[in-house]
């Protein structure tokens, strides 16, 4: 009887990784994530000179979003955004020019729980710099606004990208 229990416990330990671990994590953590809408400017004339960076997850629905991720306990939001961008895209603060006066908050539900995502806006200083993905993502794309909106299939994220474009073209936030 004792040995059966030991085997069962070991099996439970083994499935403690992957999705089970992730679902347990979700059930205890408040869902808050932070990241950057990263853009680069090309030589073309406006508006085609602006491209946005989107990453495609290697898990789940394989959805596309800008680099972002969960806030660690005790971490401030901007530090999270910078850490996640370095981890997920290989781009650090030294590679970015962070825009003043642009911060967008998205709220949506993930598996029945409210999630808040904060996005800052940042320009890649060297447009030729390459992106280095982590295991969390399987692909990345630099895309003009309309293509970026097709990849980012969520209405709120599409609106955020449109607001970023408006901000970059006019220097003003959309009301
Ligand atoms: N095994 C496994 N493991 C997973 C899974 N899933 C995650 N992991 C692990 O967690 C780590 C990631 O940790 P971080 O990087 O720190 O966090 P985030 O960046 O926050 O990443 P998430 O993917 O958790 O969160 P979202 O992007 O928010 O996607 C969640 C759902 O929300 C919807 N959704 C997404 N975006 C929008 C939007 O803009 N607007 C709207 N309206 N809806 C949106 C969409 O339906 C989507 O399915 C990975 O390494 C994995 O280990 C999974 O399914 N199976």
TrEMBL record:
<dbReference type="GO" id="GO:0006167">
    <property type="term" value="P:AMP biosynthetic process"/>
</dbReference>
<protein>
    <recommendedName>
        <fullName>bis(5'-nucleosyl)-tetraphosphatase (asymmetrical)</fullName>
        <ecNumber>3.6.1.17</ecNumber>
    </recommendedName>
</protein>
<comment type="function">
    <text>Catalyzes the asymmetric hydrolysis of diadenosine 5',5'''-P1,P4-tetraphosphate (Ap4A) to yield AMP and ATP. Exhibits decapping activity towards FAD-capped RNAs and dpCoA-capped RNAs in vitro.</text>
</comment>
<dbReference type="InterPro" id="IPR000086">
    <property type="entry name" value="NUDIX_hydrolase_dom"/>
</dbReference>
<dbReference type="Pfam" id="PF00293">
    <property type="entry name" value="NUDIX"/>
</dbReference>
<dbReference type="GO" id="GO:0004081">
    <property type="term" value="F:bis(5'-nucleosyl)-tetraphosphatase (asymmetrical) activity"/>
</dbReference>
<dbReference type="InterPro" id="IPR051325">
    <property type="entry name" value="Nudix_hydrolase_domain"/>
</dbReference>
<comment type="similarity">
    <text>Belongs to the Nudix hydrolase family.</text>
</comment>
<dbReference type="GO" id="GO:0006754">
    <property type="term" value="P:ATP biosynthetic process"/>
</dbReference>
<dbReference type="InterPro" id="IPR003565">
    <property type="entry name" value="Tetra_PHTase"/>
</dbReference>
<feature type="domain" description="Nudix hydrolase">
    <location>
        <begin position="29"/>
        <end position="165"/>
    </location>
</feature>
<dbReference type="InterPro" id="IPR020084">
    <property type="entry name" value="NUDIX_hydrolase_CS"/>
</dbReference>
<keyword id="KW-0378">Hydrolase</keyword>
